[in-house]
Amino acid sequence: MKLFLHYVFDRWMQTHYPGVPFERYADDGICHCKTLAQAQQLRAALEARFAECHLELHPQKTRVVYCKDDDRRGTYPEHSFDFLGYTFRPRRSMNRSGKLFVSFAPAVSDKAAKAMRQRMRRWKLHLRNDLGLQEVAQWTRPVLLGWVRYYGRFFPSALHRALRTLNRFLVRWARRKYQRLRGHEMRAWDWLNELRAREPSLFAHWRLAATVGR
């Protein structure tokens, strides 16, 4: 399919729409049009091109999206899209001088965040009292590092919200592991925040925020 789309889409775009930049990964792609008219015309042309090759565009995924920000202040029903685990949409940002502005930027998507939380729940970390703290950290580190390195590049605060699930499981683990914390949820959260302050690199996602929260 990848090689087929190289000829069906990539080469065709380069020949017929050389002024429209695009990205494609597997069967997902983005085309950057300058006007609504250009986007609508390109969509119609792509539908015809895919039909010629006995394919069709995905009816739900194929959309015209307006990349609204401080420089593009128009209105359009669609102003966000998902691509490669990120959601691109208007977001409040801060420039180097500390001034707030609206940018059209990516952050981890809700779908990707949900998948992360489901995977962390499947670990059943709070039941692994057979493991010590360092063993828990080593066990989770490869997956956490992968998430942080991929999704933490843009708007890491969004990723931090998704990974707070692990902090809650660490608190539950500690309350079962250490007798002094049993029956004391607030004390367990204090323990986790103190641990994070002493060893901020113990869990990869801790670098995303100043505290582990509650």
How would you sum up this structure in a few lines?
It is built from six helices and five strands; from the N terminus they run H-E-E-H-E-E-E-H-H-H-H.
Question: Would you kindly provide a written description of the structure presented here, covering whatever features stand out?
Answer:
The protein is about 45% helix and about 15% strand. It has helices at about 1-15, 35-50, 110-125, 135-150, 155-175, 185-200, and strands at about 20-25, 30, 80-85, 85-95, 100-110. It is α+β, with helices and mostly antiparallel strands and about 210 residues long. The strands form two sheets. Strands 3-4-5 form a three-stranded antiparallel sheet. A two-stranded antiparallel ribbon has the order 1-2.
C-alpha Rg, in Å? Answer: 23 Å
User: How would the global form be characterised?
Assistant: elongated
* DSSP E strands, number: 5
Element-by-element helix/strand order: HEEHEEEHHHH
The whole-number mean of residue pLDDT values reads 93
Biggest beta sheet attributes: 3 strands, antiparallel
End-to-end Cα distance: 46 Å
Percent of residues in helices: 40-55%
Determine the number of helices (DSSP H or I, runs of at least 4 residues): 6
Looking across the biggest beta sheet, what order are the strands in? Answer: 3-4-5
Low-confidence stretches: none
